[in-house]
Amino acid sequence: MSEFADAGETVVRVARNGDGADRSSQTRPLRGVAVVGLGYWGPNWVRNLYQLRRAERVVACDLDRERCERIRGLFPGVETCARFEDVLEDPDIEGVIIATPVSRHYPMARRVLESGKSVLVEKPLAMSPAEATELVHLAREGGRVLMAGHTFEYSAPVLKIHEVISAGELGEVFYVSSIRANLGLFQHDVNVVWDLATHDISIILMIMGRMPRAVSCHGQSHYRGGVEDVALLALHFARNVIAFIHVSWLDPNKIRRTTIVGSRKMLVYDDTALQEKIRIYDKGVDVHRYYDNFGEFQFSYRYGDIQIPRLEEAEPLKAECEHFADCIHNASTPRTDGLSGLRVVSVLHAANLSLKQGGRKVPVENFLAGAIDERR
Where are the domains of the chain? Predict the structure, then answer.
């Protein structure tokens, strides 16, 4: 669960269990769930829905008939259609998953909510805070579930990191450094910030438990004018805490690594590692509190043991599918709800403004000032 504390510094409260799935109620399957968009990520949604059997009907929708035929061949019993309107008009479909290009997220999600259905929107939720806020309004007014596809918040390593930080094991967090780089895949409708940094932003907001006060971003486009393919973001939090995010479509190796430095310990999360994705280092710097003169001032470096937490690995997308189905069935609020999507979009929007202004620090609270308090 999450809530806005105020427009300037949002506090995020997260309740998690095991693999991130909600086990509260699985008494009946939904009548129907549709997946719209069968390109890069859509088939994975279909696969999980098909295997989980949480819906009596699974409908896959895409304009490309070859993609539809491939889905029918892989998953017998999954229905396919080429018209989005067929999904909207089908009375048995209770939930829709939008896995289309980013520029189509908002208009399609809006139509789903207006048709009286719940919706899960792949990251990012929308392309502006105004669009995200409107989706939150529509979902609340219609009594429907709006869920943001922040998949990593359902992954075992990220849940463990949140647990470690919440328990105070690292001490006070000083800074976070995250790298998400690979060669491709170039997107046609968004830059590398909107494509890759979304993941790291959602992870950082979750583990930090609050919003940054400002964002600065530098980037460059090398192959398509005006579409940055490499960028560096800095998220400026209160109490001198900073988080760096480096994203690139132009690196020779696939890198998915996050380092979190605390006053007591340090943590490294490598999502590309086959085993031992998290390592906690009992390393740090101590300053002698009392000294008579500058010559006596010195640091003390601590080199302790390395801890490798045990993780109960499960596919995050599976947990996400189960949670979406449970939220629809129970009319409950998703862990990564519309407000979660709005927070991430607000940071992305500030980063994009900073890019256009030569890396100037852009306050995030300007975009959250009109955010919705769901308790009203």
Answer: 156-307
Is it the case that residue 23 has pLDDT exceeding 80? no
pTM of the predicted protein model: 0.89
Query: How would you label 100-139 residue by residue, b for 16+ Cβ within 10 Å and e otherwise?
Result: bebebbbebbbbbbebebbbbbbbbbbbbbebbbbbbebb
| Confidence tier at 31 by pLDDT (50, 70, 90) | very high
CATH superfamily of 156-307: Dihydrodipicolinate Reductase; domain 2 (3.30.360.10)
Measured at the CA of 95, the angle between CA 94 and CA 96, to 5 degrees, comes to 135
Measured from the Cβ of residue 225, the count of other Cβ atoms closer than 10 Å reads 6
Residue 97, strand partner residues: 35, 120
Per-state percent for the chain, helix, strand, coil, to nearest 5 = 35, 30, 40
pLDDT at 259 over 70: yes
Token couple for 244: 């760096």
CA distance 263 to 175: 10
Decide: helix, strand or coil at residue 295.
Answer: helix
Question: Is the distance from CB of 58 to CB of 29 less than 8 angstroms?
Answer: no
Of residues 264, 90, 284, the one with CA closest to residue 170:
264
Torsion 89-90-91-97 (CA) sign: negative
pLDDT of residue 13: 42
Q: Please give the Cα distance from 59 to 50 (Å, whole number).
A: 10
Mind listing the pLDDT tens digit for each residue in 61-71? 999 999 999 99
Contacts of 339 (CB under 8 A, 6+ apart): 2, 3, 4, 136, 371, 372, 374
Structure tokens at 4: 């806005």
